[in-house]
């Protein structure tokens, strides 16, 4: 197994390993790299849905996405990201995650890890953007860090409220809305395994600081959003066929760019999401 950093900021490419056949020692190395680099891109994989589920479950129990209409017909734990249309029916969600967020930050226990398994990758476009939220927190002005210390914010699944350019264009039924009440999380969370601190605010989901006047809350969140989405904290992943991508939602924020993909280009990816713990 070869592990090569993708950038000085975040991420590593992993070669010489078959995720469908991992012994315990190799899995331990993979998991260590996951904690060290926050984002891993496994190259030249051919991971079946069943093997994707098997690998994903080694990290923990899997969540099933509330937008069940886009779940895999045979494997509901797999959420299908796709702009394909088959027999007049979307094969998956066409613009899922086209805003800055951390997966399932709208749940009491947000996601630990996300695993994306490339099925069809276009020759261009469809990049995924990632932000190192450890670094974004560490670079904050000391005065800002002091102001947000111990503060909490409300997280909301945005499709329930609006159809802005920064939210997924999807209609949720009453049952789905009932499954996504607002939740409260700390603005700064401590990673349960590394002990490092990271910002946990996301333009696509974080809407209000608890107990702050509205104008003050909005100003602080806007400042934090502007800070952490600076290009210096971003890494743009260009996908290749056979890629399996995994990242740590506890310290990474991401954004899809599929919405900007030309209509004649097809992209399909299978996603599994590993449940995490309540942020502290």
What does this structure look like?
Helix content is 21%, strand content 27%. The chain is globular and about 50 Å long. With 280 residues, the chain is an alpha+beta fold. The longest helix has 15 residues, at 214-228. Helix 1 (24-37) links the parallel strand 2 (12-15) and strand 3. It is built from 6 helices and 17 strands. The chain has a 7-stranded mixed sheet, with helices on one face.
What oligomeric state do the depicted chains represent? single chain
N-to-C SSE string, H for helix and E for strand: EEHEHEEEEEHHEHEEEEHEEEE
Give the number of helices: 6
Shape: globular
Task: Write out the strand line-up for the largest beta sheet, numbering strands in chain order.
Answer: 1-2-3-15-7-17-4
Question: In terms of structural class, how would the helical and strand content be classed?
Answer: alpha+beta
> What is the distance, rounded to the nearest whole angstrom, between the alpha carbons of the first and last residues?
34 Å
What is the number of beta strands? 17
Largest sheet: 7 strands, mixed
* Contiguous runs where pLDDT drops below 50 for at least 5 residues: 159-168
Helix content: 10-25%
